């Protein structure tokens, strides 16, 4: 048989996409190159506020100077807990200019989740929204001996339109124990001298990105500057967008997909990054018309919400050269209905925090095949510098077409988990990432993701992969979202249960949806029970939380 090392997927790429990339040592180098080349170009667009590359450079210099003046040193960790605002970008650049490591944190986290990160990463500085600091983080930081610096941001700053659909509330005023982010960013003078260039290298740590913790305590993936710039440069060269193109931050920047495929890729292209705080379908559609972006990436659930908005039209997507989906499964029925209704083709992709976002994607100009047996849509093909294998429990290669665990080796794979040598040895033996995802590859190199190992349902000894059942449900015209879990069954051991949310104006009975699946699936696969919910629980990156549905069941 053909070996995975032969890289059959290269036949799916153009010559330009196969060409080796030469990324800069760090995203900071890419940013500085853009400042030197196009200082007056808009770097950040936030509602109708704008910051040029030169202004962004000066403000992030001020943050770096403040951090250094407060004793922040090379290698120190700074937690950044902000939504998709210019403050997030300024904070990240400021920390890197000070030689530090960014710990991106979901602003939805609560006290216990944040306490683990502060302690595990030994965070020195906290940069967050004023409401979060006032709500719980100040007291939490008081009990964390490593935290010495706090900066807070009022997230209505740097935008000039009053859009209360997304940005409600008022500034809380000076925060006890914290300085205002923009005040220190705008402070100049010899007392606030910018620290010396840290001369970051590809091996220097850029991020500690904490995993979602679905398999236990969250672990910190150590994304290097080289990991980030490789994938950012691969995005830039592979997408073929014009210099200075506008990228829209649909995925949250605190998530690895947003930080790499939106922010870092935009900097690599000296582009404009359009921001809109957090996802709200109507606001995002308005922003598409205002900013006319060429590229965005987001989870399938975001596209579902945009499609369901009562005011959406084809014109909202007319400016896009490429639309990508990642972070959540992309049903084939959604790709087809989106293309029919709005024109663009949704390009699938696959990646993890541990491989710094994408390790496989559908190349521009190509269409992902659908597996004829399972109905699964391919997530793409690996890049030329990446090897994706399908392996058995002993780590041996499986033949093309046979499902097994997906393993990834390449320049985007992190060197390990933060201070977790045992977890690193187990999850990345000899530098190869064992993803925990089950998938297969066809002889042409297309990769298909079946499901997570832990989500497999055992019904009377038969394996049922939730993705297969969900894809059938998504093909029903009334279904907006679907998630399938295993529930205890006295006779079968486990049986299949489906949770769905419906499209506006649809009202099928649960029995109708179960019968629809029964007609299209083997007897042991179709859901014995269907429950209709107004909304399915999701992470802020848009991934449906099956574990919460299992608890509910």
From TrEMBL:
Residues 468-543 form the AMP-binding enzyme C-terminal domain. Gene3D superfamilies: 3.30.300.30, N-terminal domain of ligase-like. Residues 31-418 form the AMP-dependent synthetase/ligase domain. InterPro entries: AMP-bd_C, AMP-bd_C_sf, AMP-binding_CS, AMP-dep_synth/lig_dom, ANL_N_sf, ATP-dep_AMP-bd_enzyme. It comes from the Bacteria. SUPFAM superfamilies: Acetyl-CoA synthetase-like. Pfam families: AMP-binding (PF00501), AMP-binding_C (PF13193). PROSITE patterns: AMP_BINDING. This is Long-chain fatty acid--CoA ligase.
């Amino acid at each position: 048989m053909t070996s995975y090392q032969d890289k059959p997927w290269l036949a799916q790429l153009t010559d330009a996409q196969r060409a080796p990339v030469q990324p800069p040592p760090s995203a900071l180098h890419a940013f500085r190159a853009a400042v030197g080349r196009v200082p007056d170009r808009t770097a950040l667009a936030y509602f109708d506020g704008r910051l040029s590359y030169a202004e962004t450079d000066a403000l992030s210099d001020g943050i770096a100077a403040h951090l250094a003046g407060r004793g922040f040193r090379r290698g120190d960790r700074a937690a950044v807990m902000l939504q998709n605002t210019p403050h997030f970008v300024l904070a990240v650049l400021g920390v890197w200019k000070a030689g530090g490591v960014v710990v991106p944190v979901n602003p939805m986290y609560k006290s216990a989740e944040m306490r683990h990160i502060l302690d595990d990463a030994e965070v020195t500085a906290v940069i967050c929204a004023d409401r979060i600091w006032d709500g719980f983080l100040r007291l939490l930081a008081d009990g964390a001996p490593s935290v010495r610096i706090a900066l807070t941001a009022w997230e209505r700053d740097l935008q000039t339109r009053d859009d209360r659909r997304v940005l409600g509330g008022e500034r809380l005023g000076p925060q006890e124990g914290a300085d205002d982010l923009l005040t220190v960013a705008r402070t100049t003078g010899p007392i606030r001298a910018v620290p010396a260039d840290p001369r970051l290298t590809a091996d220097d740590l850029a991020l500690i990105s904490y995993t979602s913790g679905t398999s236990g305590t969250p672990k910190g993936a150590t994304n290097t500057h080289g990991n980030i710039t490789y994938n950012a440069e691969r995005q830039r060269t592979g997408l073929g967008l014009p210099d200075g193109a506008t990228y829209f931050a649909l995925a949250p920047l605190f998530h690895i997909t947003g930080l790499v495929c939106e922010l870092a890729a935009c900097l690599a292209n000296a582009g404009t990054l359009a921001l809109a705080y957090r996802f709200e379908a109507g606001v995002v559609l308005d922003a598409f018309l205002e900013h006319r972006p060429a590229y965005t990436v987001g989870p399938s659930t975001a596209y579902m919400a945009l499609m369901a908005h009562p005011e959406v039209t084809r014109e909202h997507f007319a400016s896009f050269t490429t639309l990508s989906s990642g972070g959540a499964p992309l049903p084939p029925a959604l790709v087809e209905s989106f293309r029919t209704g709005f024109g663009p083709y949704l390009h699938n992709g696959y990646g993890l925090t541990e491989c710094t976002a994408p390790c496989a994607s559908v190349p521009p100009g190509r269409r992902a095949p659908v597996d004829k047996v399972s109905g699964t849509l391919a997530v793409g093909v690996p890049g030329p510098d990446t090897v994706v294998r399908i392996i058995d429990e002993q780590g041996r290669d499986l033949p093309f077409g046979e499902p097994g665990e997906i393993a990834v080796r390449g320049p985007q794979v992190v060197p390990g988990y933060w201070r977790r040598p045992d977890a690193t040895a187990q999850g990345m033996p000899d530098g190869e990432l064992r993803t925990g995802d089950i998938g297969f590859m066809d002889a042409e190199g297309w990769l298909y993701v079946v499901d997570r190992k832990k989500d497999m349902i055992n019904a009377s000894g038969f394996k049922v992969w939730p993705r297969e059942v969900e894809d059938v449900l998504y093909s029903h015209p009334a279904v907006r979202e679907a998630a399938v879990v295993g529930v205890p069954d006295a006779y079968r051991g486990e049986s299949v249960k489906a949770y769905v949310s419906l499209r506006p104006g649809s009202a099928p009975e649960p029995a109708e949806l179960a019968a629809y699946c029964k007609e299209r699936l083997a007897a042991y696969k179709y859901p014995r029970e269907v429950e209709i919910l107004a909304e399915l629980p999701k992470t802020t990156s848009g991934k449906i939380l099956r574990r919460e549905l299992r608890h509910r069941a």
